[in-house]
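Notes, Module 5: Reading structure tokens.

Key idea: the token line is not a picture. It is a compressed description, and you learn to read it the same way you learned to read a sequence, by spotting repeated patterns. We will look at two proteins. The first is printed below with its tokens.
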Amino acid sequence: MNMNKNRDLIINGFGSSSGGEFELASINGKGKVHGDIDCKHYDCNGFGTVNGNIKAETVKINGKSTINGNVDADSITIDGHSSMSGEVNTEKIRISGSGSIGGSLRGEHIKINGKASIGGDCEAEEFDSEGLFTIGGLLNAENIDILLYGDCKAKEIGGQTIRIKQRIHGFMKIVKSIYPTRLVTDVIEGDDLYLEGVKAKIIRGNNVTIGKNCEIDLLEYKGAIEVDKSSKVMKTNQL
């Protein structure tokens, strides 16, 4: 463990440290930090544990990181495995590896290319997913664009423009029966909706297009509606 004159915290190998204010906090081996970290850059390239909150401009995780607290950062990039027990607030986050958030996630731009688990709500201006996700609360964003590669779940989904499409080709056709490419939710509500592979209790919107492979108990709409013949809608109601 090394803390230089510029107040960088660097752990190469095995080590531990108390928290504090740093320019750079970097864990390249196996390290633990006991306390809150306030820094410009937090990097984890090894096995890192922080027993406290992190406030940073950038958070980059290429290894395996456990943060037992809240994270407040301008930018978060997860290419490895990360577990954050508390709330996460950020301008933008990209999850290409595996990310678990115990509380709620709030950000301007959220991008999921890997696997994400969010215990609370997920709020954003732009939500873009080409991976797998589970959201325990409400997914709420101005624009939601989801390309389904497997089974995704959210308690409720709300936004202005919501587009959910299935991605089934090549190898995915073979494993379709084992790993369903669908999204399961109680409610989807928005202005302009295009949905594929959705299983929901209630769909409510202005202009609604129900594409292939949907199962919907109640569909409520104000404007235009279109339903693919492969989908099942139990009840339709024009508002």
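Here is the second protein, with the sequence above and the tokens below, as before.
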Amino acid sequence: MPDNQEDRSLTLLYQRHRNELLAFLTRRVRCRETARDLLQDAFVRLMHSERSEVGNLRAFLYRIASNLSIDHARRNQVRGVSDEQALDQLLTDTSPERSAVAGNTLDHLERLIDGLPSPTREVFLLARVEQMSYKDIAARLGLEPRAVERHLNKALSHCAAAALHARQPNEAE
């Protein structure tokens, strides 16, 4: 019976704080899908923790989520996920000069994406074009969600590097 009570307590905690915690994580990692993954990880860690020794479960849950987002940022710094931010910046730049080059850049990015290895290309297209979640992509391709994240980061790194390389000669003019 205590396990059932604990399950109800976790369910209630999840229902009460899911949206605010998701918003918190989304602000920290700047990616709703990653935030959803971290939110799930936070509740899994909470579920496996020694909750009887915790006074404020909400605060403890936020601490877990904060630590997960810090770990995520550290991993991505090493892997170069800031490339996604660089790519987003390049794609949102609407200056006339940039617009004139956009067609060539899009053609270049299309060739670059076509040249990615199969699983990486598929993950990229499903995530960015189809707007599928990591979990759905993982199920569809028979991968682990972390593998989906790695493939997406690899694709974004290649696209951002190519976009930055294509941009540099234009800036010199």
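Summary for the second protein:
- The chain has two domains: 2-79, 82-172.
- Residues 1 and 74 are 41 Å apart (CA to CA).
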